[in-house]
Amino acid sequence: MEKRASAKKTAKKAARVRKAAPVKEAAAAPGKAAAAVKKASAPKTVAAKPPGNESRTALVRRARRINRELAEVFPYAHPELDFENPFQLIVATVLSAQTTDLRVNQTTPALFAKYPTPEDLAAANPEEVEEILRPTGFFRAKTKSVIGLSKALVENFGGEVPGRLEDLVTLPGVGRKTAFVVLGNAFGRPGITVDTHFMRLVRRWRWTDETDPDKIEAAVSALFPKSDWTDLSHHVIWHGRRICHARKPACGACPIAPLCPAYGEGETDPEKARKLLKYEKGGFPGQRLNPPQAYLDAGGKAAPPLGATG
Predict the structure, then answer these.
(1) What DSSP assignment string belongs to 256-294?
(2) Among the options 101, 195, 228, 231, which is catalytic?
(3) Is 195 labeled as catalytic in the residue annotation?
């Protein structure tokens, strides 16, 4: 009886090792991993085939472990747009298209100083708004969007930013991505923000091979409890901006390399990889002029204002 119990225990352990093997093999054989990622990059309409015929259960476990690991690396992850209220956040998010959050943060203080409320911005002279928004690029289109957005808030929502997805997406310039940024960070309602970094990383990690943002959102949300969605978005986006870059991911300095089937797509030498890091913890400036205290406590620095030198 004792021998049978011992044999059963050994068999279970072996099964666990076999199940974990595909992930570790991906890290050890970067050539195979890169080939798998290249194959997965072709547009499809079905879910990605996980590395090593990974089961659905194994995929969920790996995805959640990646999120836990990133939470330890970026415990202070936060939205990198400065805002004091939902109105400022929704305007800043619309302005962040085709530019950096840093440039938006350097531009919005002047905008909100002159037009602090939706009523003020709705009645603004477009030419004056364009001049303020010029540094963000596409300033004419963005001026039209934020003025139209403000008018819609005044006319349809009493000058208040609504806290429901179905209402937010009716506003000019606001899609699901912007809506979830606002819901998660201004109202504390869970949402997944599918930006370019998020799309790139979840495909590299083989969580899905969908290319449509809405389908990516659906696929990834099914892997995590709803309470994790907002922080997950921050963790993934921060990792994409700092370590897992589009052209030269710093694979050799990546804290989740053993869990990544795309290991080897970027630089694997640790010393060379470290030189690719853009915003390491403790010493490099953050995107925000006024970052959360937790970020400052961790050694992060506030970004410089527009026009500052040194």
Answers:
(1) TGGG-TTTTSS---HHHHHTT-SS-TTTSB-S-SS--HH
(2) 195
(3) yes
